Amino acid sequence: MRIEAKIRNNICLTAHPLGCEEQVKKQINYVKNKGLLEGCKNALIIGSSNGYGLASRILASFGCKAKSIGISFEREGSSKHTATAGWYNEKAIEKLAAEEGLDSWWINGDAFSREIKAETARMIGEKLGKIDLLVYSIAAPRRKDPETGELFSSVLKPIGEAYTSKLMDFEQGLISETTLEPASEEEIAHTVKVMGGEDWMLWVDFLLKQDLLSAGFKTIAYSYIGPQLTAAIYRHGSIGEAKKDLEQKALEIDQKLKAVRGKALISVNKALVTRASAVIPGVSLYISLLYKVMKQKGIHEVCIEQIDRLFRHCLYGQGPCVIDEKGLLRLDDLEMREDVQAEVARLWEQISSQNIEAIADIQGFREEFLAHHGFGLEGIDYQADIEP
Ligand code: NAD
Questions:
Q1: Dihedrals φ, ψ of 277, to 5°?
Q2: Reported pTM
Q3: Which of 39, 55, 109, 213 could form a disulfide with 116 if both were Cys (CB 3.0 to 4.6 A apart)?
Q4: CA–CA gap between residue 210 and residue 202 (Å, rounded)
Q5: How many separate domains does the chain show?
Q6: Can you give the pLDDT at residue 171?
Q7: What pLDDT is recorded for position 319?
Q8: Tell me, what's the pLDDT at 386?
Q9: Distance (Å, whole) CA 136 – CA 199
Q10: 359 alpha carbon, distance to own chain's centre
């Protein structure tokens, strides 16, 4: 069948296998051009199929030439439907790693479950011995509690009072307004349950108990803070509570890791287009303005550039690496620069459906969003029939 992009409500329902492979290749080439990195040797990446997790997998595997296991939760294709982009990305990693003689494995399943933890532990024992790096990069809408079987859903809502925000439909190029009612106490607790640090801690506890963490082991999870402009919906909203929990759990995990002279870290990454961020109200508009400003200033970065900087400068290199007073690695340093934020805030006030194409980098947003699903890449024949 001929595969085209189908977008509804900022979600892309299709993906292109060859395009996905191409964009994975581009990320790999970026890392290889930077040169080999002395770093991890045996890595586990949870949430490895897209966005920041995919970039982390590429750094570990193609940057450090580590043996790696990736875990993600993706849907296979059929004769009528395409697979998810993440499925094609994982298949591309498998193929491209094999071509370079790199050892890499993929587990497709629910990382929150006990079964996947047990399967992963078995695989680490068999294939890697022990791991020295665990990257935790899940963005999930729901989580089933492994003990009780109860299903928790996360929400993207403000806390305390309703919040009216500008909203961008990037496909149509329209700006509208929406009012979000505040999250209930229960919704906040559920969001923390899904996107907070509990599962990360369960993973570390489990692998530590199984003696699968080597001396000097490092684990890192990704957080976001962002500016005042998005604070009501992000940092001070339900998802912000989950991120604060994640950051708190890092301190607790760090204590537990003393047993192996290990370290738990948080990297506060830059806001950028991924499948997860495109659906956060207000944040997609903020990102398209941020892109405009950061590109104009020549300081724009995408996932692979952020994670390359994280690995080379903060995790394994000699810096420069910005670490704040709470010990958080601030990969969002350029995003949060005063001049950048002042300019984004100025544009935010001006934006409307009439001037969006000129004021925001909506074109860049669209292109990157489509590329995450394998569309719009050079050298791919999108008219050709292809088996999904
Ligand atoms: P993404 O949507 O691109 O990728 C999410 C990954 O999680 C995918 O690999 C998916 O398969 C996996 N996943 C989801 N549910 C799973 C489950 N039950 N079991 C196993 N895997 C599962 O997301 P992203 O934007 O790269 O976000 C990754 C992390 O980075 C999140 O913690 C996010 O908050 C953080 N972050 C994102 C941004 C941003 O702007 N995108 C900025 C800073 C921090």
A1: -75, -25
A2: 0.97
A3: 109
A4: 12
A5: 1
A6: 86
A7: 83
A8: 94
A9: 9
A10: 26
Is 384 within the bounds of a domain? Answer: no
CATH number of domain containing 102: 3.40.50.720
Instruction: Give 47 Cα–ligand 1 centroid separation in angstroms.
Output: 6
Task: Give the pLDDT of residue 274.
Answer: 85
Cα 109 to averaged position of ligand 1 atoms, centre (Å): 14
| CA of residue 49 to ligand 1 center, whole Å | 9
CB of residue 375 inside a 6 A radius of ligand 1: no
Does the residue 40 lie in any domain? yes
Q: Tell me if residue 222 is catalytic.
A: no
The boundaries of the domain holding residue 63 are 7-372
Residue 2 in any domain: the answer is: no
Low-confidence stretches of the chain (pLDDT beneath 50): none
Q: Can you read off the two tokens belonging to residue 388?
A: 């999904």
CA angle 141-142-144, nearest 5°? Answer: 165
35-87 per-position pLDDT tens digit = 999 999 999 999 999 999 999 999 999 999 999 999 999 999 999 999 999 99
The CB density around residue 150, as the number of other CB atoms within 10 Å, is 10
Per-residue pLDDT, 301: 97
Rounded (to 5) percent helix, strand, coil in the chain: 45, 15, 40
**Residue 323: DSSP 8-state:** B
3-state SS assignment for residue 253: helix
Residue 377 belongs to some domain of the structure: no
Question: Mutation test of ligand 1: which of 23, 27, 50 has the most ligand atoms closer than 8 Å to its C-beta?
Answer: 50
* Chain center to CA of 139: 7
